[in-house]
Amino acid sequence: EQFADNHFIRTIIEDDLKSGKHTKIHTRFPPEPNGYLHIGHAKSICLNFGLAYVYDGLCNLRFDDTNPEKENQEYVDSIKEDVQWLGFKWADEPRYASDYFDQLFDFAVGLIQDGKAYVDDLTLEEMREYRGTLTEAGKNSPYRDRTIEENLDLFNRMKNGEFPDGSKTLRLKIDMASGNLNMRDPVIYRIRRAHHHNTGDKWCIYPMYDYTHCISDAIENITHSLCTLEFEAHRPLYDWVLDNIPIQSHPRQYEFSRLELLYSITSKRKLNQMVSENHVSGWDDPRMPTISGMRRRGYTPEGLRLFAKRVGISKSENVVDMSVLEGAIREELENSAPRLMAVLNPLKVTLTNFEQGKTASRSADFHPNHPEMGSREIPISQTIYIEHDDFAEIPPKGWKRLTLGGEVRLRHGYVIKCDEVIKDENGQPIELKCSIDHDTLGKNPEGRKVKGVIHWVSAEHAAPINVRLYDRLFTVERPDTVRGEDGEYVPFTHFLNPESKKEITALAESVVNDLPPESRWQFERIGYFVTDRKDHKQGQTPIFNKTVGLKDSWQA
Ligand code: ATP
Ligand code: MG
Ligand code: MG
């Protein structure tokens, strides 16, 4: 069972199946194609598609495309790709709210005929004044009592393009004194001459979200319409619309809490700003919390699904530390990524007693628990490289790595001893002279224990690689909630980490020369890395992105 269990929505579904209210459940994931999907959407995708999977039902992918200015085909395509990459299949073809524009229009005409909708001439600003507040009832619009005939005529003329943008709206006639502001005669159509990615220039009036969403759900015979908590107060309107139009099906809306990730941002609008202001290289920049960014970073669908399962589904606040996300990714990669050795910050080591022909190479499996991943030879030569950090001339307490006069084991190789340190004019080590204990390949040395094991590469055999190292994108936990002394929000871009990306060259075992893009590896003792999906090209210097370190770096 790979999806979040025992949450209240599952209880509701199980009750509905038991009571016979539904024989099959049908959910939907309804993104607006106004940006790329992010980690919050991943939670919603895993919930909606996961429930359909677990209860043998169906899940639709529906584009909620009622704001033509902000939407486009690139976003539609990226959303389809991301959902599939996460491992899910939608029922039939993707749906579009815009497929229902004719039906939505007809239902609106019906509402007018029933005296339940009217054309209003108030401006947006006037409407806001008439709306009232939480503590004060609203006022009826002076246009509220237009006759049905007049409303039908005006609405048709709105559709036919006889009025300028924004000059008229169609509103539901509900209750201007309702305690719920959403019920105070909500606007359901506005005039907007905008080109639509699906319907082109056919329409100059567009339906509003609240009106469109419930009807789209009903047309598709959705049984459980799951959304985030900010729509709780919209539920009475959802039900009102379905109760007042001639449609059989009446899906039920249930709300759960939005996922928020610390040191990150989960808002398409703000992520869009990051892209348009060039703070990142694009929506799929490996630092972005978008699904495509995380993919490029090397995260796996399995790891993201594990994360979604762990954060769970509830109505309480769902603010999650980055270490939870990285922990899930790391845990999944531990068993799925083969391993190799790479040295990111090389220190030259000369093996003084190396003997061609006598000093043997060794074959090693790519994964200690998965022999089916294959193996490779690990050749050695007179010169090798180790990490600078694995040598300390004056070792701190508890040091298990290499030190002057000390011994260490080379991973998959011999025990070596450091006999001499060569330094530059600043006193920094630039080369070590070491001797090999030739009797230690695959066995312990006689009469003494060598605890430390370090990774290394052979100078003669290693391949140069480019490595992109990433750090947190923001320097504060909640970059979009910080207020300045004046009480105003500080722009979240103020908290961008200037050191979130670093590119270095490094040395790795030569297997890196034959990798396709998106090949995920553990660099032993360092972390997980992936060949870049876009920039890595076979036959050129390999380009790796750091996915995540082996240890949690989020603890202070
Ligand atoms: P954004 O503010 O980032 O644009 P949205 O909710 O407007 O988010 P939609 O494209 O309308 O974006 O979202 C599609 C679905 O994904 C909705 O059902 C929404 O509730 C869900 N969703 C969006 N963000 C989150 C989140 N942070 N956590 C959980 N679900 C989310
Ligand atoms: Mg939305
Ligand atoms: Mg939005």
UniProtKB/TrEMBL annotation:
The lineage of its organism: Bacteria, Pseudomonadati, Pseudomonadota, Betaproteobacteria, Neisseriales. Residues 453-532 form the tRNA synthetases class I (E and Q) anti-codon binding domain. Belongs to the class-I aminoacyl-tRNA synthetase family. GO terms for cellular component: cytosol. This is Glutamine--tRNA ligase. InterPro entries: Gln-tRNA-synth, Gln/Glu-tRNA_Ligase, Gln_tRNA_ligase_bac, Glu/Gln-tRNA-synth, Glu/Gln-tRNA-synth_Ib_cat-dom, Glu/Gln-tRNA-synth_Ib_codon-bd, Glu_tRNA_lig_a-bdl, Rbsml_bL25/Gln-tRNA_synth_N. Its main location: cytoplasm. It is found in: Cytoplasm. Residues 337-437 form the Glutamyl/glutaminyl-tRNA synthetase class Ib anti-codon binding domain. GO terms for molecular function: ATP binding; glutamine-tRNA ligase activity. It catalyses: tRNA(Gln) + L-glutamine + ATP = L-glutaminyl-tRNA(Gln) + AMP + diphosphate. It comes from the Bacteria. It comes from Simonsiella muelleri ATCC 29453. A motif ('HIGH' region) lies at residues 31-41.
